[in-house]
Amino acid sequence: MLLRNSIAAVRHFSAVAKVANTGATKDSGGGRDTLGRRLLSLVYAKRSAVITIGKWKEEGGTARKYELNRIVRELRKLRRYKHAIEICEWMTLQEDIKLLPGDYAVHLDLIAKVRGMNSAEKFFEDLPEEMRDRTTCSALLHNYVQNKLSAKAEALVEKMKECGFMKNPLPYNHMLSLYMSNGQLDKIPAVIGEMKNHTSPDVVTYNLWLAFCALQNNIESAERVFLELKKAKINPDWVTFSTLTNLYIKSSLTEKAASTLKEMEKMASRKNRVAYSSLLSLHTNIGDKAGVQRVWKKLKLCFPKMNDAEYTCMISSLVKLKEIEEAEKLYTEWESVSGTHDPRVSNILLAAYVNKYQMNMAETFCSRMVQNGVTPCYSTWELLIWGYLKQKQTGKVLEYFKKAVGSVKKWNPDQILIAEVFNRLSEEGNVEEAEELVVFLRNAGHASTEIYNSLLRTYAEAGTMPVMVAERMKKDNVELNKETRSLMKRISKICAGEVSNMCS
């Protein structure tokens, strides 16, 4: 919650700066008072945008459509969809505001996000006929794609074809994205072929096409696509070169990767900030330490403050390049400037210590995290669990296993991790701690046949008879399967043999 609020605060202040001059302005003792400021200051969802606009108008302010649209855009960037949708709904009730299909498209998208697809579909169906045009259809299609609703997306595309709404690349790009995310790669060539018959691909199309080639690890096809892009006189963007570079790296074509990476670097700018993080990762993947440092220096020259994602990327790059001391220095810098205390940044260094079997360093670092206001998350404890599993310290494993489960509201059991913990206990024949783990899992609501079977394997390894396992399983509504019965027979034979040996 603290992390979410911190990020929201950063986004809030940057957005307020953007809309400081939005709306009619009035003199107030604290500086310029605007409708934009008032609406952006409604951080809590319970507060009403409609009441705020009403009060503004009562005080003599004006609420123009273009100003409100600008505020809606900022609210969407902040993911404050409730207030954005309230403004859209308020505009639909104003007789002096004439709404266009584009306005309804934004409204539809917000409804899908806030109230779900059923509500969005009803909104679309209730629109006046003249407002159900290419723009609103594309908005509905976009949301079908976002929700991976293939059948509905395909049906809508057919209707759009009938209405002549498929004369630009956007809907085709939506379908390419859908088929890529759903793994329906066999449908992609047909979409591209159909697009070429009705319109011209744009740079987004070519980037998706290149990504398709990359998924198939087909360098020849990717290079043909890139050549076609250049012949079409379409300017490639940083994503184009990033995709090609990744493909070349995967195929160990380092020289070609370095060449496309150089082109990509030319395109990194203040407008394409995210490109810098991609550049850092790609330079790291070809082992180019100098390139990583150069990109980081450029990034710091362009922007006064780095965000968590950029620190994460750079620290990760330094760790991969085995520059641990540099990574530690950069982490210290992040500690001094971070307002979020995001444990995901800390976990990069923690993982580095765990992977090097430096568990004392890992423990010390974890304590440092807490002292400096970073709250360990599930992944933090999971890293320590795996580290101690490798070192066969089952006491520590169970300690951090409990902390991991306790760190989340709802735990989705990691079956691989549970199995690995039980395997370690079974190898040791450690029935006491195996029983402790079973009790803990039962109390967490995750008793299962496999968990009880794991317990029985531990008893079998220890050559000890368990107490009333069948009865306990019945009480927990857990079924005995074939393996359960087989393990019980095996334990009985072992124990009977030991008794016989003692008597003879």
Structure notes:
This protein is mainly alpha-helical and 504 residues long. It is 72% helix and 1% strand. Helix 24 runs parallel beside helix 26 and helix 26 packs parallel to helix 28 (482-503). The radius of gyration is 29 Å and the shape is globular. The model is unreliable at 1-29 and 499-504 (pLDDT under 50).
Helix-strand blueprint:
Elements: H1 2-18, E1 26-28, E2 31-33, H2 35-40, H3 49-58, H4 65-77, H5 81-92, H6 101-115, H7 117-126, H8 134-146, H9 150-162, H10 169-182, H11 188-198, H12 203-215, H13 219-231, H14 238-250, H15 254-267, H16 274-285, H17 289-302, H18 308-320, H19 324-337, H20 343-355, H21 359-371, H22 378-390, H23 394-406, H24 415-428, H25 431-443, H26 449-462, H27 469-475, H28 482-503
Antiparallel strand pairs: 1-2
Helix pairs in contact: 4-5, 5-6, 6-7, 6-8, 7-8, 8-9, 8-10, 9-10, 10-11, 10-12, 12-13, 12-14, 13-14, 14-15, 14-16, 15-16, 16-17, 16-18, 18-19, 18-20, 19-20, 20-21, 20-22, 21-22, 22-23, 24-26, 25-26, 26-28
Outline of this structure?
The chain is mainly alpha-helical and 504 residues long.
Question: What descriptive keywords fit this protein?
Answer:
mainly alpha; two-stranded antiparallel ribbon; 504 residues; 2 strands
The largest pleated sheet is described as:
2 strands, antiparallel
Adjacency order of strands in the biggest sheet: 1-2
What is the alpha-carbon Rg in Å? 29 Å
The dominant shape is globular
Q: Strand portion, in percent?
A: under 5%
Which structural class matches the secondary elements? Answer: mainly alpha
Count of discrete alpha- or pi-helical segments spanning 4 or more residues: 28
Distance between the termini: 66 Å
Helix fraction?
A: over 70%
Say how many strands there are: 2
Summarize model confidence as the mean pLDDT: 91
Taking pLDDT < 50 over at least 5 consecutive residues as the criterion, the unreliable ranges are 1-29, 499-504
Order of helices and strands: HEEHHHHHHHHHHHHHHHHHHHHHHHHHHH
